[in-house]
Amino acid sequence: MNYAYVAYTADRRLVKGKLSASTEEIAANMLSYGGYQVVSLKQVTPFLDTERLASYFTKIKPREIIMFSRQLALLLESGTDIVTALELLQSQMTNNTLKKTVGDIVTDIRNGSSLSAALIKHPRAFSQMYSRTIAAGEQGGNLEVVLRQMADFMERAAETEKRIKGALTYPIIVLVVAVIVVGILVTYVLPTFAGLYAQLGADPPLTTKLLIGFNDWFSQYGLYVGLAILVIIIIAYAYVRTPAGKYQWDKMFFKLPVVGRISLLFELARCCRTMSLLFKVGLPLPEIMNMAVQGSNNRTMKEALSEVQQELIRGEGISKPMAKRPIFLPMMVQMVGVGEETGNLDNTLATVAGSYEAEADDRTGTAVGLIQPTMTIVMGLVIAFIALSLLQAMYSVYGQFG
User: Fold this and answer.
1) What is this structure's pTM?
2) Fold for domain 156-402?
3) pLDDT for 399
4) In whole angstroms, what is the distance from residue 30 CA to residue 45 CA?
5) Each residue of 315-349: b (16+ CB within 10 Å) or e?
6) Parallel, antiparallel, or unpaired for β 37-44 and 14-20?
7) What is the phi/psi pair of residue 37, to 5°?
8) CATH number for the domain whose boundaries are 2-45
């Protein structure tokens, strides 16, 4: 932050100027150490804060936080103090937003703040779960171990997201290409043939008549149909953005064929991973459940976890409340019960997460394997139908004038 000051020098001269500091107190101390007697000190807010503006457009990727966590753990294990380690990592960073964030964290630590308290001020870079986990590591004296565990957790989550995106890339490309090809045939090729038939006075086959009729109808009413579809999409999107709409969408999404089961498995795996990590670092179960609720992206799952948390606080444990709700699959309920009885909840949850991730990957691979040939066949049939209709019409013309 920048501060404008008015102060007296040692020889009683009045001076004005600006300086940069993280807080007003630090700015006042800097002036005092320099021999100035402060008259006024005010924060200067520029009309256009380019650094803040750039931070909104420069995204901090999960991979950068993973690398930061691993390197910080390595430096701490080698005996480097926390401030020196952070400054060393800051000097090597290429992402200016993350570099500035780490600089602010270093300043806070120099002013007596803990690492976790400094991290929680930057939620765009470090989630609340990350900061709370680091706090548990600080209290337990095993910060290096916790940093590595957090890096492993984030890496698994990033790999899962990457696999999902990779699986959907090919079908989307095939769909876009097919739509473009069909659009070109219907928009440019078919009207040319229709004009030719009209000039020759030929009687095209039924399939060609249907295509020409559809093309004429779409040319006349296509704009209205497109606007109606756009309005419906906007209304549906606005409704889904509301709490009630979001809840209904999330609830319906788990019930969709194929995709619903895969989404549920990934949500449960993420939940188990979160609980396993936080239990391993020593957080109490009520707080673990609270973090699991915050870590879920599905409103239905959030509601179920919140209800489990409330019954946990009332002394009913975890497995019994989960058994009452069908969203938690039987294997997860049984393994959680075993973990509660044996005191090995972190390992049993990690086992469940691994099992669900493997099943979700298999189902995703199978679904994509079916989607790709199905889309190719359907689009091929559509294109073949258009092409054959045009060819039939050409042969029909030759036959009528031959």
Assistant:
1) 0.65
2) Receptor-associated Protein (1.20.81)
3) 66
4) 20
5) eebbbebbeeeebbbeebbebbbebbeeeebbebb
6) unpaired
7) -105, 110
8) 3.10.20
